[in-house]
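Quick question, first post here. What does this chain look like in 3D?
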Amino acid sequence: MLRLSFFRYLSASDRVDLSSEMVMSDRDLIRASEIADWCFCKRSWYLNDRDVRPSLVQVEKRDTGIHYHEQHARTVKRARTTMSTATYTLLLVLLVAAAYWFWTKAR
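> Answer (accepted):
Ran it through. Tokens below.
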């Protein structure tokens, strides 16, 4: 028996094969990736949905933008590394200075 709710059950002979009754086309399905694309960029989702492909000029511009952003990310990472190194060096110098100060006062 197939349980439908708390009070109603269907026997195997009462079941309806939904695959033969209602067939949905792939066009009617909304996938999670489509929702994510729509939330990220509605224009991109719209163009992808209509199979619009970028021209060669647009592809070159996109590649140039990708190259620029990758270079910028490397620069930012290098700057963060430098700042982290400087911060740790400053903390080490302060720790050594405090230790020296306490050592001279203890003598």
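The beta strands are 2-3, 9-10.
The mean pLDDT is 82.
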